[in-house]
Description:
The protein is mostly helical. About 70% of the residues lie in helices and about 0% in strands. It has helices at about 5-20, 25-35, 35-40, 45-75, 85-110, 115-135, 150, 155-170, 175-195.
Amino acid sequence: RLSTIDFIVPGIVALSVMNAGVFGAVNIVSLRERRVLRRLQATPVSRLTIVSADIALRIVLALTQAVILVVAARLVFDVRLNESVGALVGLAGIVVLGGLAFLAVGFFVGSFARTEQGYFPLAQVVTFPMMFISGVFFPIENLPDWLQPVINILPLTHLAEAVRQLMIGGTATFPLWASVLGMVAYLVVFMTLAVRLFRWE
């Protein structure tokens, strides 16, 4: 008995996490382009510290966006939220995991972009299709059968599914553990690739 807004709001939360992660990674590309990373090599600050601080900032921003969206959904649109402590803690954990996974994707994209301006088209190529085929605005079951194998492996599909299960419940396309494992896999694979491919200068 969920309304349209009940379905859409969790998708928008997932979409905001994706954008915060992928487009937040552009900051490292900008620092590289302006040769800030190279100059920092002469200081006691390590690259790991710089990246860790940037990641922490992006995760805090993703959590803040999620909180604002959830509160607005409850107060303005009267979305039927699962307000149990376990669900809210789980939702925060999923937002953090999703943010990390999409930051990893963003860092991977940044390994191919030489400039900040060049980063955005590449990031949009990655994120734009997922906005429409990952179950953000409508159920993925309504999409063509031939597209289902692609949909089922997209990170935004798993993030939207996990957020929706924790926020409003309802029938799940994937078990929660499967969505979590999917995002962990994206985090590990793309962070490994980013570490190997990313150019610091």
